[in-house]
Amino acid sequence: ETGVTQTPRHLVMGMTNKKSLKCEQHLGHNAMYWYKQSAKKPLELMFVYNFKEQTENNSVPSRFSPECPNSSHLFLHLHTLQPEDSALYLCASSQDTGRGYTFGSGTRLTVV
Amino acid sequence: AQSVTQLDSHVSVSEGTPVLLRCNYSSSYSPSLFWYVQHPNKGLQLLLKYTSAATLVKGINGFEAEFKKSETSFHLTKPSAHMSDAAEYFCVVSDGPLNAGKSTFGDGTTLTVKP
């Protein structure tokens, strides 16, 4: 375990479903991130939260909706996804930029 | 602005031979630099980091990297490859305050280790 826990590890959902991904860290970090990793594509930053405030939304479609209720928890709410949204979704946290990220193991999402 | 280029998308070595994964960066500030490793279906794990201290940085699993400002490089090396080193490796640069906590990831280098 890295200190960043993501659940579920695997998720299969239909295009009309609503589901949520959860990320939890107990490292005392003040920043949390969602990344999307698709096959044969670079890692894509989706959202950044710093002290619970969203500081970055990287032109992500509205069918992805993040929520950060406190500095230890981060959610990604999903609705009416498309098959191209199938990917590994990685959560990360950091204390500041000089120390690097701690990543979770990811949620493997398949949209059918 | 910051950017990072991993010069090889695939590297193949034989077990027991040296590993070299190349990374060049661009930064408007004194950068922090990182290498991460990702094994199949896993998250990314921090291998090592440079944050303006010693230019030769030692990481986990016998890896090390040297920060060369004049060459804007941060290449990852290991003297002797092991089968368990086969994975995807990412070089990352962070400008720090100029990017409010964001880091820029390279496209990754896939390391294959042959028996």
Mean pLDDT of chain A: 89
Report how far apart the termini of chain B are: 41 Å
The shape of chain A, in one word, is globular
Name the helix and strand elements of chain A from N-terminus to C-terminus, one letter apiece: EEEEEEEEEEE
Work out the radius of gyration of chain A.
13 Å
DSSP, total strands of chain B:
12
Q: Approximately what portion of the residues of chain A adopt beta-strand conformation?
A: over 45%
The biggest chain-chain interface is: A-B, 27 and 26 residues
The helix/strand series of chain B, from N terminus to C terminus, equals: EEEEEEEEEEEE
Biggest sheet statistics of chain A? 7 strands, mixed
Shape field of chain B: globular
Give the % helix of chain B.
under 10%
Largest sheet of chain B: 6 strands, mixed
| Radius of gyration of CA atoms of chain B, rounded to a whole number | 14 Å
Oligomer: heterodimer
Derived structural class of chain A:
mainly beta
Low-confidence stretches of chain B: none
- Beta-strand residue fraction of chain B: over 45%
Low-confidence stretches of chain A: none
Count of individual helical segments of chain B:
0
Describe this structure in words.
The complex is a heterodimer of chains A (112) and B (115). Helix content of chain A is 0%, strand content 57%. Chain A is mainly β and 112 residues long. In chain A, a hairpin with a 2-residue loop joins strand 7 and strand 8 (73-79). Chain B is mainly beta. In chain B, strands 2, 5, 6, 10, 11 and 12 form a six-stranded mixed beta sheet that branches. In chain B, strand 5 (32-38) and strand 6 form a beta hairpin. The model of chain B has no long low-confidence stretch (mean pLDDT 91). Classes of the chains: A mainly beta (112), B mainly beta (115). Chains A and B meet through strand 5, strand 9 and strand 10 of A and strand 5, strand 6 and strand 10 of B.
List the helices and strands and how they pair.
The complex is a heterodimer of chains A (112) and B (115).
Chain A: E1 4-7, E2 10-13, E3 18-25, E4 31-37, E5 44-50, E6 53-57, E7 64-70, E8 73-79, E9 87-94, E10 102-103, E11 107-111
Parallel strand pairs in A: 2-11
Antiparallel strand pairs in A: 1-3, 3-8, 4-5, 4-9, 5-6, 7-8, 9-10, 9-11
Chain B: E1 3-6, E2 10-14, E3 19-21, E4 23-26, E5 32-38, E6 44-50, E7 56-58, E8 64-68, E9 73-78, E10 87-94, E11 104-105, E12 109-114
Parallel strand pairs in B: 2-12
Antiparallel strand pairs in B: 1-4, 3-9, 5-6, 5-10, 7-8, 8-9, 10-11, 10-12
